Every structure is written in structure tokens, then in C-alpha cells.
Amino acid sequence: MLFKLSITGLKGKLKDYIVLLVGLVLSISIFYMFQTLASNKEFLEANATIKSIGYVFQVGSFLLAIITFFYVFYANSFLMSLRQKEFGMYMLLGAKKYKVAFIMFIETILIGVTSLAIGIASGIGLSQGIGHLLMKQLNFTASGYRALYVPSITVTCIFFVGLFILSALLNSMKLARMTVLELVYGNTYADSSVIKGKMTGIIAFISIILLGIGYASMIFMDVLKEAGITIAMLSTTAGTYLFFESVFPLFVKKLKENKTHNEKGINAFTFAQLKFRINGLTKVLATVAMLIALGAGAISGGMAFKNNVIKSADKFEIYDTVIYNPTAEEMKILNDIPFKDKNEYRYKADDQYIYYLKAELEKNRPFIYVENGGKYTGKLKRVSEDLPLGAVSNDGQEMDKNTKVIPDEWVTALRRIQPSYLDYLDKTIKIVDIKMYNELQGKEGLVFIGKTDDFAAHTQEWKKLDELQLEKYKHIDADDMLSKYKIYNEFYTVSSGTVFMGFFLGIAFLAMMASCLMFKILSGATADKTRYDMLRKIGVRHELLTKSIYKEFFLIFLCPAIVGIAHVLIGMNIFGLIVIDPYFRIWLPICIFLVIYTIYYMITVQLYKGIVLPKIR
Amino acid sequence: MKRSVIIVKNIQKVYGEKRGNPSHALKGISFSMDEGEFVGVMGPSGSGKTTLLNVISTLDHATDGLVEIAGTNITKMRQSELADFRSKKLGFIFQDFNLLENLSIYENIALPLSLQGVSSNKIGTKVEKVTKMLRISDILSKYPSEVSGGQKQRAAAARAIVHDPAIILADEPTGALDSKNAASLLETVANLNEEQGTSILMVTHDAYSASYCKRILFIQDGELYKEIHRIQMPRHVFYKEILGVLAELGTKKR
């Protein structure tokens, strides 16, 4: 009979249960998605540029497990709050406590199993969809990647069944400990902060120290290596949770203590709303901050690897294209490319030398790298040295005392504009003036060099040019043609596995973050409805209520975003071990994240408004 | 002559008109109320008294007719104007208190003033004054869940009068209180009326509560049935008269 009753009760709160189920399903599918990468060793080894990628994924699994643990735990206490009044009523009518506790247990397990089944199914679907989408976007085939991967299913099942049994036990224990009255009059009390008075200050202090240790170990990653990752992960995570547990309540308290500000308009209510559910919020906000850090971090990491391809290609070749004696067809392509810097140099070649014109070279000085104590800096400069007339390059041949030698910078620059695969150009260079040049007998040629702002934007053109080159020089093997495009392509192939992982995980983490915060806010919305109704009755304008909601959520969304982004900005140091410049174009993933986050903020506010505010006639 | 604080002319309220099965909650009620009056509205369940109060309190729209409060015609106002009107001219006391449980008692009482942009200092003096009058000065820092029902209703009453509204609208204010607390609250409300000259319109089905009023309107089936005045009459005599009318209402119904 009691079971029948509880099923009826369940139907009555279908909407809340759907919110709960969707939240759980999302977290399970995301966990599964992560596992399709993490537990697939074959894929990881075949596709990652980083040797210790397995270790990184172990650390990631651990972090995700902590976050999921909090999430599931919270979801189940929400389930409990949904039911406690009803269960209290049953007890009031004479149902035995152990029986009610048992129903609670069964219900938690049932919800868990249902969401596990749906979650794994949708996880497979999501992995398939996102995986293929990314592969298509990145123009890459992830060998060994499988959306339906049995070991991942096993890991997910074991993990979640464990979690659900644990939280089912906790739920029924909690229920058994509460008195009937507490159950019936459950959720009308304001949460008071768990940590009170002086303790809050101490905890805040500890949290900042922990964050400091975590940040320091990320900044000094090159000294600490793998130990640094472990220290950073543990102390940053712990620091973040403690930070939100202590500093956030302190912040809200300070907001409320400012009397003039608090008593302005509806602020008292806005801040009270915040304060009222601060306890539930702190853990969720810490979780959200961590997910933002992981998600935005993974995407930034992915982008860093993507940018690294360009950086590495740039390290090998300054000019995007170097073409000898361009044909009409080649010129046509070259003319369509917006070069930032392009030059043409004439040359003549005979059996012994290749001759360049002093005037032409000095007028349009080519780029070379700025080196700092022999170290690559990534910066460019134009050759500044003088170019003596009649100088030759020192290629190890015997030199006359009187022979002038081309200075080093010029040699480097000139070698750069001579592709190594055109071996007939591999001769000693000699610098001549126009008069001497005109008297020379050798065949005249022209070299075109060009550099754009964005190499990656014109890959189609570079590819075409390479093909034309191959047609032109029949004797060259495609593998030997080391054009910048070719180098770029090789780097790209190697790193795209890592880029794929970064984007894949980034999307997964951000989706989880979204579901986490949305779930928390919407699950409390029904209870907030009465409060907004009261305010409306005593004459608060609709616009003012809307403003209050925007403001409240702004504060809720702002804090984890700040913490999360700080984590990302510091955490990018980790990639400094592998990538040339992890901070290159870091604003791009951060902006992408901010746009997504803002959209998501607006959606949450709209959904919440739909629940708590009556529609205007 | 005293000014009218409420003028209601021939108001109608029809529910479910669109679905083709209309039910008339109010069938053309007219009455007026002067400044400083304490008027009760009585009637059996379903007689339309709450609908009447909702229309007067601008929470609901009348289908037809005119409602004027403190000289303002509210039937033609837009939602946001109505909200402003409520926050300035009306004070509410509800059966279930309607205090915001996430605000302290002080903040609850201060809210109507905060909404009107009154400075923090003035709010302090004002709240102090009304809470002293209602004898709840010592619970200001507490939250609604920490005080008794009687104290909650006093707090609600304080919130209703703190911004000097033109009229206080009370909907079964003693409904959730025990008899001792109810009596104490009614004394307070009656005092407000007598000493401060506050206009009060109270809806109740309880004859004892109604006996504190100076005039009572009886409503049945959406129409004004009878009106009685308490002139130079002790309360217990008026109470008997009310019971008489209620009995009359009951028999007529059968």
C-alpha cells in the first residue's frame, strides 16, 4: 500500500523528477564520454603528442570522480527534499519508519539505475556525435577511437552503482534520524553557514594558502614535472572547495551588512535569496568553478596544441611560400593571397655560383629570426648587416685572403629563400652589382617569397602550390618536398589527436558545468515561487523582480567564472612543458567560453523567470 | 464631510467566460468607505468576499464596473502602475502572514520603504516607531521561522502600516492564530484605527473578529445582502447582532 502511495506521490512531482533525471543522465553520459577516451589506451597511445597522457587522464578521471561525487550526492539530497514532507505525512499517519526509509532507499536506487541506463545510451550517442563532428572539423581520423567501448561502460557502471548505493544509504539514514515534525516542516528554514564565526576566517585563510600552493606548483611546473601535476590538482581542488565554503559566504555577508546598500530597493531580498541558499550553493559553485577550469582549460589546451602546429611550422620556415620562377598559374594563386610581406629577387646561376643583386637584396631585406643566446624567440627582424659587393658565401671551400665573405645573417637569410629540394641551386652564393649581373652568361631566374598574417587561413592555396611545384619538378619525390605547408601538415597530423582530446573533453566538461548549475537553480525554483508571489502582492514591479533575478544570478555566475578562469590562466603553465607558447591567443578560448557562459546565464534566468514569475497579461 | 477612501460601483467578476460556462463571482456590488473607517466584509464560503478583496487590492481585474481608491481609478491602470500603486497606497495583512522567510523581521517590515527609495536612516526611525506600537521591538533581528504565529502576524501588520498607506486590506488576519493571539491582534488593529485614524477593510468569516469593526457588509452569492453599523454599542452586543444576521443568512439559503 505504501509503495502504491509513494508511486502516486512520484507522479505528482513529475516535473521535479524530470529535472533530477536529466541532471543525473547528463553527468553519467559525460563521465562515460570521458571514459571512452581515458580507458582506451590504444587510442591514447596512437594519438597523443604527450608521452605522459595516460597519467594526465588518470588525474582527470580522479578529478571528474570527485566532481561527480558531489554532484550525485547533491542530486540525491534534492530527491530527499522532494519526498521528505510526503514521507513525514506517511509517518504521521502511522507508517513505520524503517518502511519509509526502505522506500527511500529503493527509490534512490531505481532513479539511479534508470538514469544509468539512459545516461550510458546517451553517452554513446554523444561520443559518437561529438567525436565525428570534431574529426570532421579537424580533418583528422582518430584511429582506435570507439564511441561504444565496453571497458568504459564497465567503469561507468561500477562507479555510479557504487555512488548510488552510497547515497541511497545516506538518504535513508538521514530520513531515519529525522523526527516526524522535522520532516513535515522541512524546508522553510534558512540555511545558516556550516562554518561559523572565527572558523570561517581560518578556513578562508587555509583555502587561499592551498590555492597558492596549487598555483605555485603550476607556475614551477618545469621544476616539479609530474609531481607538480599531482600537487596542483589536489591542492587547487581542495582550495577551491574551501574557498567557496568560506570566502563566498563572507562575501554575501559583507554585501548584506552594508546597510545603505542592503536597504536600497529590493536589494535586501536579492541578497537574502543568496544568503538563504548559500550552503547548497557553495559546493555547487566550487564544482562549477572546477568544471569551468577543466572545460576552458581543456579547450585552451587543445587550442594551444593547434596553435603550436603553426608555431612549430614557423620555427622551421619564416616565409609561407618560396617559389622559383613562378608559372602563370602559380602567379594567379599567389596574387589572390593577401601577403603581409612579399619580395621578388632576380638571380643568375652558372656552374660555380648563384648570383644575387646587391641592390635588390638591400632594398628589400628579408626576414630572419631574432635569436637570444642561440635560443629561438619566435620574433622576426630584417637583416640589418651590410652586404659587401663581390662577397661569397663560405661553404667550406678554400678561400683567398682577399675574398670578402657574406656576413652570417645574410647567409641564413639567403639559405632560407633557397628550398633545399632544388639541389641545382645548392651552390656558393655571390653578391654582384647590376653591371656585373648584366654581363653574366648564366640563366636568369626569379625567386618569389611571401608571408601572410595567418598561414592556416590559406592552407588550400599552399596545398595547390605544392601540387604545382611537384608537377613542375618531375624529379622531386613528394616526400622530399619540404615546403612550409608540408611541415605544417606533418605537425598537424601528429598533434590533432591531442587537439581532438582537448576539444572533446572541453565540451564534455562545459556541458556538465551547465547541467550542474542549471540543475541547482531550477530545482529550488518551485520553492522560491511563493516568495516572488508575496513580493508581487505587496507591490513590487515586475521589472524590479526581473532585475533582482538577473542580479542574483549574476553574482552566482560571476564568482565561479572568476575562479575558474584564474585556474585556467595559471594552469596553462602545465602545457608549457610541451607547447612552445601556451599563452598564444589565450584570449580566444577564454572569449569563446565567456560567450557560451553568458548565453547560458541568460537561458537560466529565462527558465527561472518562467517558473517563479507569473506571465504578464 | 470625510473623504471617501474606497468607492466601488457596480462591479462584476465573471470567471470562465471564454469556456462558455461562466460563473458570476460578483454580480454588481456597490459601496463606499470613508477615510478612517473600519469595515468588515462577511459572508459564507463562496459568497465572493475574497474576490471582492482581490479586486479592490488590484491583484485581480474586475470584469466590469468602477473601483476608486484614494481618488484613483484603478480599473484602467497597467500592471506596473498597479504594482506602484499597491506599494504606495495599500497595506496588506494575509491569513498566512506572507512574510518572506529569508528576510529578518526588520527587513520584512522595512521592505515597503526600501521599495520607495527611503533612506536607510529614515527607515530605521520608521520601523522603530511601528514596531514599538505593535510591541515587537525585541524580535527584529530574528527570522520568521524563529518567532510565534502571533508575532508573525504583528510583524505583517507592521509591514502593512509602515509606509502610511491610504488603506489596510486584511484577509482573514486571525485565521491562523489561536484565540488569545487573535484577540490581541484585533485589539491592536482596532487601536490603529481609533488612535491613528487608519482606514481598514477586513474580510473575515469569523463573527468574533468582525465584532471589532464599525460597519459590516454581508455578501451572499456575489451580491450585497445587508449592512450593519456599530453605533454607541458595546462589542459583545454588536457580536450578537452579527450572529443574528449570519443565522438569517443561513436560513435564507435553505
Summarize the structure in words.
The complex is a heterodimer of chains A (617) and B (254). In chain A, β4 and β5 form a beta hairpin. Chain A is built from 21 helices and seven strands. Helix content of chain A is 69%, strand content 7%. By secondary structure, chain B is of the alpha/beta class. In chain B, the strands form two sheets. In chain B, strands 6-7-8-3-9-10 form a six-stranded mixed sheet, with helices on both faces. In chain B, strands 2-1-4-5 form a four-stranded antiparallel sheet, with helices on one face. In chain B, α6 (179-196) links the parallel β7 (167-171) and β8. Chain A binds chain B through residues 188-190, 259-260, 262-269, 272-273, 275-276, 531, 534-544, 616-617, and chain B through 57, 59, 79-80, 83-88, 90, 92, 94, 98-103, 107, 110-115, 117, 119-120, 123, 143, 145, 159.
In short:
Helix content of chain A is 69%, strand content 7%. Chain A is of the alpha+beta class and 617 residues long.
Short descriptors:
heterodimer, A: 617 residues, alpha+beta, two-stranded antiparallel sheet, B: 254 residues, alpha/beta, six-stranded mixed β-sheet, four-stranded antiparallel β-sheet, 8 helices, 39% helix
Number of strands of chain B: 10
Total number of helical segments of chain B?
A: 8
User: What structural class results from the helix and strand content of chain A?
Assistant: alpha+beta
Give the mean pLDDT of chain B: 88
Q: How would you characterize the largest beta sheet of chain A?
A: 5 strands, mixed
Can you give the helix content of chain A as a percent range?
Answer: 55-70%
The biggest sheet of chain B, with number of strands, parallel, antiparallel or mixed sense and barrel status, is: 6 strands, mixed
Strand order of the largest sheet of chain A: 1-7-2-3-6
**Shape assignment of chain A:** elongated
Residues in β-strands, percent of chain B: 15-25%
The N- and C-terminal alpha carbons of chain B lie at a distance of 41 Å
Number of strands of chain A: 7
Count of helix runs of chain A: 21
Query: Which H/E pattern describes the elements of chain A?
Result: HHHHHHHHHHHHEHEEHEEHEHEHHHHH
Q: Please report which band the strand proportion of chain A falls in: under 5%, 5-15%, 15-25%, 25-35%, 35-45% or over 45%.
A: 5-15%
| Biggest sheet, spatial arrangement of strands of chain B | 6-7-8-3-9-10
Low-confidence stretches of chain A: 189-195
The interface involving the most residues is between:
A-B, 31 and 33 residues
Helix-strand pattern of chain B: EEEHEEHEHHHEHEHEEH
- Which spans of chain B have pLDDT < 50 for at least 5 consecutive residues? none
